[in-house]
Design goal:
The chain is of the alpha/beta class and 338 residues long. The protein has nine helices and 14 strands.
Length: 338
């Protein structure tokens, strides 16, 4: 998104320079050429004329063709691919700054931050993997944020959701956010408020609908879930069920063999996603019933990785499948999303 804004601004500036400066100079040069006044031109003037022509051609390409788009996208893709060959991963510890704060409670997952850290570090010793508070995003550049708390996340302002906005900005700028179980941002947790220690608070915005009829005024108060402001296309969430995970050949080619991770294809589906969900790329599926169990939703230059599974039961291999999905997506990024 940011890259696109740069391209549009460069086009506007180039067209302005063409209209105000370069075009009149070029017309003057052509007029002199037609009148035969170039016989007495000096070497310096000839060099200036050639430079003017080159600048004119460059600005035409910049302002009126897609060459700039292609060049900048190619450069951006190449740089992003190099970054994700050795990504920097922040595993959230459930706090904002870890200073006398109460960490969030994991919901629909029994795996801790250290459980996620261990297999990633063993398989990829060249990756930087760190457990820490969300404020680490402000002090250090990370490429991936992993939320091991499932449907809960730490929020500095449970009314205005400023932390949620920071996470969205991180993804918009190119980051990868992995939510390991269920729907992201379903519950918010304020680590500084003891009231949140043993309670789950739904994250969302209060909406008041006023209906005026002949008999008077009726007010209906509802809550719009926070995740729906970000992913309005996600709906009709299925109940929990043990299903067989599978991949199409194309899924396996792009993201590796996720279905076989953990030695069994059985997983506990929970709040999975409808097939053909707009904007979602499927990494792992189920067949009966047919749903997408793990999917990627692009957001700006980055992506939200979502796992529609419960990881509460350690007897089903959902955990290694989510780890494999993260590894598969990062390998996909390292290839330039090819």
């Amino acid at each position: 998104m940011r890259l696109r804004r740069y391209i549009l601004r460069a086009r506007e500036v180039s067209k302005l320079i063409l209209a105000i400066l370069i075009a009149p100079l070029a017309m003057s040069f052509v007029a002199d050429l037609l009148k035969g006044r170039l016989s007495s031109i000096t070497l310096a003037q000839a060099v200036a004329a050639i430079a003017l022509i080159l600048v004119y051609i460059f600005l035409i390409l910049l302002g009126y063709t897609s060459k700039l788009d292609e060049a900048l996208v190619s450069i951006r893709t190449s740089r992003r691919a190099r970054t994700f060959r050795s990504p920097r991963i922040l595993i959230m510890d459930g706090t904002l700054c870890a200073d006398h704060e109460i960490p969030a409670r994991a919901i629909y997952t029994s795996y801790s931050a250290t459980d996620w850290e261990a297999p990633i570090k063993v398989a990829h010793p060249d990756w930087l993997v760190e457990i820490g508070p969300l404020d680490s995003l402000d002090r250090q550049r990370f490429d991936v944020v992993l939320n091991p708390f499932g449907e809960a996340y730490p929020e500095a302002d449970p009314h205005n959701y400023t932390t949620f906005a920071r996470i969205c900005d991180f993804v918009l700028a190119g980051g990868v956010y992995l939510n390991v179980a269920g729907i992201p941002f379903w519950y918010s947790h304020d680590p500084k408020n003891p009231l949140f220690a043993n309670k789950d608070f739904h994250a969302g915005y209060i909406q008041r609908e006023v209906i005026r009829t002949g008999g008077g005024i009726t007010e209906i108060i509802t809550m719009r879930a926070l995740f729906q402001t970000l992913f309005p296309q996600i709906g009709n969430l299925p109940d929990a069920a043990v299903v067989d995970a599978l991949q199409l050949d194309r899924d396996r080619e792009l993201f590796g063999d996720i279905a076989a991770a953990g030695g069994s294809t059985k997983v506990e589906m929970f709040r999975a996603y409808r097939p053909q969900t707009p904007g979602m790329i499927p990494l792992l599926r189920s067949s009966a019933p047919e749903y997408w169990l793990i999917g990627a939703l692009r957001y700006g230059d980055g992506v939200f990785l979502l796992a529609g599974m419960s990881l509460s039961d350690r007897t089903t291999p959902g955990f290694p499948k989510v780890v494999a999905a993260l590894e598969g997506w990062l390998a996909f990024e390292a290839r330039g999303r090819k």
